[in-house]
Amino acid sequence: MTEVGEIEPWAQSGHSTRKLIETVLGVWPEHAKFLRASFNQRSADLLLTTETIVELLFKVAADQGRTIQSYADDYRYLCEQIVFPEEMFFRREGRYRLSTFADAAAQVYDNAPLMTRYMDGLFVSDALWFNHASAMNDFASHYLPTTKRGGRHLEIGPGHGMLLHLAAKHGAFGKLSAWDISETSIRHTRHVLDLLGQSDEVDLRMQDLYDSAARADFRGNFDTIVFSEVLEHLEEPLAAVEIIRDLLAPGGTVWINVPANGPAPDHLFLLHTPDEARRLVEHSGLTVTRTAGYPVAGATLERALRQELPISCVLVGVKDA
Ligand SMILES: C[S@@+](CC[C@H](N)C(=O)[O-])C[C@H]1O[C@@H](n2cnc3c(N)ncnc32)[C@H](O)[C@@H]1O
Fold it and tell me: What is the architecture, at CATH level 2, of domain 139-318?
């Protein structure tokens, strides 16, 4: 418990972030300890990115006539009902529960009501979980400013569309594209882009990354690719990174965000460390120019590695010019 008069670590956050936290604590008071750990160590640019994410979330909610409390409910559901049982399994067995895409599709992707709560909860976690928000901030504050002006940009697996929104808001790309295999994700992404009035400018399509025709048609086509929280969902992760290598133009870069030790019902591919992620990307023939590891709230990177706690691993890979 925080003593009366003691300042909460989110006091320096933006107005919308504080409102979201207040709403989450309204439906889930016991979550305060986690949130304190998560906001204890946020830099000014991380707080700014957090606020951008929450403002977008509020816009999406308002546009859909939904309350913030319904997002807070979905967030609690994500933590307690979707992720927690998988964490218990991971602690016990040292592996993720599922290993095939078919099982993940049957249990998660094809369950539309579950998918909606899952995506909504994830959207909130992108602001509230230190590891998730730090990865988003890595993209907004460190990667986007390095991208080629007027470049052709692709996101594979945009999900709720937040990173594509940030890329569109950045405003310096010549062309934006996004591929996803889920109709729900395409709908969410289109909605987020609509709010910016930018959905007409984005080539958004139902497209499986593994489709060989697309690999041939778009070979060497993109200057930048974003691949965030997708690798862990795949049965053939190395093949996916090899396809990305082929889709990149010479000198093009990919920004990858993948969890280590991050159990979820649709996660198939388990990495233990950012180094393992680096080796995978290097194996594809890309050169890794930067890596970062963002540990779960309240842990140092050293402790997260030692105790196999979740770490968001960010990697930037470049294709030889
Ligand atoms: C967890 S979401 C990631 C959302 C977002 N990129 C983020 O960082 O939070 C994973 C997304 O990858 C998509 N996906 C999974 N397999 C795919 C494939 N083979 N080709 C294209 N998209 C895929 C899913 O439909 C889903 O929208």
Answer: 3-Layer(aba) Sandwich (3.40)
